[in-house]
Specification:
This protein is about 40% helix and about 20% strand. It has twelve helices and 15 strands. The strands form three sheets. Strands 1-2-3-4-5-6-7 form a seven-stranded mixed sheet, covered by helices on one side.
Length: about 325
């Protein structure tokens, strides 16, 4: 991780994390008139101590006023509880579509249990409502719905400076896997709509959820649309890719794990099992057998390592 070197306004600090953890976007309150700095997305819970340390360094003694999430996947909200506690119980605002699930801590609705991922429980104070505006630091941010990767996701746009915080709706090379499609619901049209909405904005700089900020918005949109076209033409390709992403992400979370435990995770992750039923069953007779094949493929590509029966993140 590192502070981003791309030219951004001096009241923005972006901490680029390894792919397991989302980027941290810190919007400073330079005039001390907005109730403190605001953190957009808090990374994964396994990196919470590191996140707190990085924020203390970036804040340099200034207060943190609140946390805002672009969406509620564990790599974006996993640090919420630790960061809030470390900075005096600062409030947490989440996209309105996920607010009730957070308050009752429904791990199925939030997606943690179906994927077998970790997230430390937290409570939300407020709702981030698409179509609304947020005053974060000295800036006004438009809240724009960005479903597709996650049905309730939002992006934040500062029209005065052309800065877009895009979460997983747009990366420099693509976008996040489309979870509704994996759950038997349409999602590709929503991805297209989110890309169209971004294209209509006068964006100069994109701060994505993963990877460095970038200015070639037209190029990123073209690459994202090309990927989407491929997925629409062959939805099973998206499903197979997503299964590999789930395995890889699990190993990023665990760092290393005996193969039998990886296979046990696969059997217990209902979303992985659903993908196996759709595209893996013709290749392997059980989710565990398919997971073993995927581990071999990921190891062959260098994304994982297998050493003495232990699967290691690479």
């Amino acid at each position: 991780m590192s502070a981003l070197s791309l030219r951004l306004p001096d009241d923005l600090t972006v901490l680029v994390r390894g792919w397991l953890s989302s980027n941290n976007v810190l919007i400073h309150d330079r005039d001390d008139d907005a109730g403190g700095a605001v953190l957009v997305d808090s990374s994964h819970c396994t990196h919470a101590a590191q996140t707190v340390a990085l924020l203390r360094q970036a804040l340099a003694g200034a207060p943190l006023g609140r946390i805002v999430n672009t969406h509620l996947h564990s790599d974006h909200c996993g640090g919420n509880a630790a960061v809030s506690e470390a900075f005096g119980g600062v409030p947490i605002d989440v996209p309105s579509g996920g607010f009730d699930a957070v308050q009752r801590w429904d791990e199925d609705a939030l997606g943690f249990r179906p994927i077998g991922q970790r997230c430390v429980r937290f409570s939300a104070r407020g709702r981030v409502v698409p179509g609304g505006r947020l005053r974060l630091g000295a800036r006004e941010w438009e809240v724009i719905a960005a479903p597709g990767h996650d049905p309730d996701a939002v992006v934040l746009f500062d029209s005065a400076h052309g800065v877009l915080i895009s979460g997983d709706a747009l990366w420099e090379n693509g976008f996040g896997i489309v979870f509704p499609e994996l759950q038997g619901e349409p999602g590709f049209d929503a991805v297209a709509a989110a890309l169209d909405a971004i294209e209509q904005l006068p964006v100069a700089t994109v701060i994505p959820g993963h990877g460095p900020a970038f200015a070639d918005v037209a190029g990123a949109l073209a690459r994202a649309r090309a990927r989407l076209t491929g997925y629409r033409a062959d939805p099973d390709r998206h499903a197979r890719h997503s299964a590999k992403v789930l395995v890889k992400y699990h190993l990023m979370e665990e760092r290393k794990q005996p193969l039998e435990e990886v296979l046990r995770w696969a059997q217990g992750a209902s979303l992985f099992v659903a993908i196996w039923q759709r595209v893996g069953a013709p290749l392997a007779g059980s989710p565990e057998e398919w997971a073993a094949r995927l581990v071999d493929e990921l190891a062959g590509s260098g994304a994982l390592r297998v050493e003495g029966g232990v699967v290691c993140d690479a």
